[in-house]
Amino acid sequence: MEGVTDVVGEWVTFLSRYCRRQLAEIEREFPFRRSLYIDYQVLQASGKSGLRLADEVIDRPGKAIGDIRDALRQLTAIGEDRVGAINVRVHAIDRITAIRDIRSFHIGRFVSVSGIIRKTTEVRPRIIEAVFACPGCGTTVTLRQGYGQFEEPENCPNPECNRRKLKLLPVKSRFVDSQKIRIQESPEGLRGGERPQTLDVEATDDLTGMIAPGDRVVLNGILRSKQRVTYGTKSTLFDIYLDLSSAESPEREFEEVNISEEDEAAILALSRDPDLYERITGSIAPSIYGNLEVKEAIAMQLFGGVAKDLPDGSRLRGDIHMLLVGDPGIAKSQMLRYVVQLSPRGVYTSGKSSTSAGLTATAVKDDFGDGSWTLEAGALVIADMGIAAVDEMDKMAKDDRSALHEAMEQQTVSVAKAGITATLRSRCALLGAANPKLGRFDAFVPIAEQINMPPSLLSRFDLIFVMTDTPNQGRDTAIAEHIIKAHRVGELIMRSSAGPLSDEHTRLLAAESVAVEPPIAPDMLRKYVAYAKRNVTPLITDDAREMLIAYYLRLRTLADENKPVPVTARQLEALIRLGEASARIRLSETVERTDAERVIRIVDTCLRQVAYD
Ligand code: ADP
Ligand code: MG
């Protein structure tokens, strides 16, 4: 007993020392302010007792919150009637638990997870204290309600009455605003195509309606369990959810690639390499032979142009959208998967994927919301600030197609359906792959007519590559040699992990791997890209400007009305973005003649097929 009062006393000391201003605000503005935020870092740093209290918050948060309430009762400034209504929230926890590492050990403990919001439901009242009355004798019963199943009294507690059914009195009961949320691991934390895991979260009271799908957040709360019930039978299995205590924006280091001083030195050295462009292009999908222009363009997409906010309040995207249309079996999908792994934030999805959210976002009534509307983020929202690789784009749903216009140009996704209106952000670069209309290109029909997408959508791509697969002895041999090399290298690497290789195999591995190994290791390239995006915002020189304008004007006169891609001012913007990306690759603050030349060469190979002859 002694110990308990001690702890409450310690909380009184802490609160009156570090939370005085908040308490005064709650006192003054209640019920509009009714949440007390305890800064975990401050608590931990507030001496020996603070350290102990901090541990208690993590290990026994239920008890800690009870103690804090007792302490609030002693701090006479806040009336007893209010103490029960104050939310005790803890934030600024320094240890993040990975969602996939959550185990039964964590039940009842305070945990912090970081990730991206996948779904949210509407905000709805949830009953927390249900008052029942007996229609016979008027006896009332109050039951506190947890999350999930509604609990009802068996029968009237009055021994003289014994009526079976009591009636709920909603007016006398207490409700709280409640919202269900699903958070998923961030794509950058995943390696090699792992499926992201999710955790369900319940937000209550003033935390509801604050979080939208696509938001990157750190969520702190108490992990709770709920017994599974199937067809009225209780199971021994439990589901878990996070009872949300606070939500914050993630720190930089959780968000982005960490770059040490040594990394920076290596990055600067690499930027001065005379073969920089070849090495970077060669590091993109090295196991795929050829396709050098596509790879060069993908390199530019990784770096991206500069997003600009104009004085009139409008915004120009810096992200470069790219489409690969081609015959089956020419490594389009492989290329997409590779890019997703290279990008600090990549998401791979298929246009015909089965998820209800599709590419943009949807509002549906599904069982997640138990009958209320749920807003779910699709791939382009999840890929915010990264690259969304969308395979089989020609097979996407109609709804997605129209939403894609906004997502690609404004980089937002608007949803207005039933009770839900929301605008989500989708600031990502899109790398799409599609097959031609009839599955493969028909040599007797103009290629342009075989691209199965409307001009309005096509014009939003900065680059469109047409990839045909026509037999060609020389090229076919080279591809065959290359594929076999890749297989041999893979085989030898597998063997070498089992035991030492023979001298002959060691020599073979060294000789063959040159062709299929990236000149720049993926980890290094990822850092290089992150560094360039973070630190370099190139400006166009007069020289480059004149070249780009002259090329654009020539395009306008060449443009063929019968081609699927209209030549509009969008192409000029694409040239600028690509020029910026080209300059960024060598960490240059200026877009120069060489950049303009490179960009015009690439854009011209694309447009020659889809916009003019
Ligand atoms: P797509 O998506 O274009 O239909 P895939 O990406 O599924 O084709 O590729 C089919 C297979 O052919 C893959 O295993 C890929 O590695 C191989 N392949 C196709 N073209 C090449 C190439 N140029 N170099 C190496 N492998 C290739
Ligand atoms: Mg494919």
From TrEMBL:
Record flagged with keyword Nucleotide-binding: yes
GO cellular component: MCM complex
Gene Ontology molecular function, alphabetical: ATP binding; hydrolase activity; single-stranded DNA binding; single-stranded DNA helicase activity
Its EC number(s): 3.6.4.12
UniProt keyword list: ATP-binding, DNA replication, DNA-binding, Helicase, Hydrolase, Nucleotide-binding
Record keyword ATP-binding present: yes
Pfam family, one: MCM
Cited SMART domains: MCM (SM00350)
EC primary class: hydrolase
GO process terms (BP): DNA replication
Domain MCM C-terminal AAA(+) ATPase: 276-483
Top-level taxonomic group: Archaea
Family assignment from sequence similarity: Belongs to the MCM family.
Protein name: DNA helicase
Species, as recorded: Methanofollis fontis
